[in-house]
Amino acid sequence: MLRAEAAVPVRMRRVAVVAPEQALRESLVRIAEAGCVEIDLAGDGGPDVRGPAATHLQRLRAEPAQPVLSEAAPDLDALGREGRTDLLAGEAQLEERLGSAVRHGAIAALAGWCPETEVGATAARIAGAGGALVQLRTPRGVDPPTLLTGAGSAPPGYAATTVRRSFTPLVTTYGTVPYADLDPTMAAGIVYVVMFGLMFGDAGHGLLLVAIALLLRAGRPRRLAALRPLWPFVAGAGLAATLAGVAYGEFFGPTGVLPVLWLEPLEEPMRLLAAAVGLGAVLLAVAYAAGIVNRWREGGPVAALYATTGIAGAALYLGLAVIAGYVWLGPAAYGVVGAVITVVGLGLAGVGLYATTAGGPGGAVQTGIQLFDAVVRIGSNVVSFARLAAFGLTHAALGAIVWDGTTALAGRGLVAVVAAVLVFLLGNALAFSLEALVAGVQALRLEFYELFSRLFEGEGRPFRPWHLPVEHIAGSATAAGPPVTAEPVRQGPAREE
What we know:
alpha+beta, two-stranded antiparallel ribbon, 2 domains, 5-stranded antiparallel β-sheet
């Protein structure tokens, strides 16, 4: 589903499910089947909502089953006799929500969250049951839950491109994006595959990754069918490695099959190192820009101005970069401009950091240590991208060793030729497996610690819609009757009412 706000999480609306008591069950069943609404439950020290279905389920002591809801109000005794733990588990979840409802006379209501674009369809869905979906104001001090397009918790109608869906685990593995922040899914995926390709630069190995991606897309092997949605991610990494291999002239090592279009890693390591650090400097600048936007969206211009991951940090980074240009290129004007920008960045960051301390001399000392750490971190983060070159050189060195061993054995008789083929195959299999693992981990490390640490200062709360399948065929386990309403069971000692 294409959205204009693709760079931010899905927009949420605070809603209330309102229905007459006799229509509440059917309305909730339709909510569960749609899977678009996260319903607030009683908890956090409040009464424990436990209904008859939960009691029946506890008595059965059977293995937990995938919860399913019955369209009609079920006969719980019949469900127990038939061993329908799936329907009992679904009914227990329904009772939990019924018991969390706020009631006024014959009307009951439940608050929750719903994606903005799904409000209309969900409202129409429960209107047929006699319920209504009412839009509310977002409570002060409460952040809506976060839903990234393509995430596993997305409701059925919230489809995403296969590429975006395959990149989403990169972000969700790090944490839940705060609702106010940018959604970095596509940018993070592209940056990851580029960094992976630079470290895994071999056209032959890259094409093998592409072939593996196509096998995943076809559902082969079957035991890895759960990884099928990731095939575009694997294909992108393979394509990036193939392009880097073409640039390096590497095809299962320095076999001479491809000409060198850019540089040969083992012959020009310093040039590759400079390119890796330069790429890292650009990526850090982009991360600071995104961090400024996030701080502004989270707390306004003041929060963006003084944060070390906002304008203050970006100014400090820019000033140090200009000073580095002075050291590299020589003009004194660079040094003066860089020093001024650095002092401004340190001043802004110092004000922001000092405001978070207890004040006084102790706060000043703490601020000084944090500023020193910020400067050191900037330098170490830039240098950290040298690993793109280091592991690219390692991959090229392994390929060269395997190829030298292969050519040394070839031409010395039939047995030597067979040995050369084995060395080539086994050596490349080892290099492929080892380097794919190392490059994958190192690219993830750079993305998380160098880039995401500047984008995010906190963590959001994931959107968890209530979604259960509904059994529409009434059997012996269901019977018409009044809906079951769970009553709160108070914990602790009994007291007179």
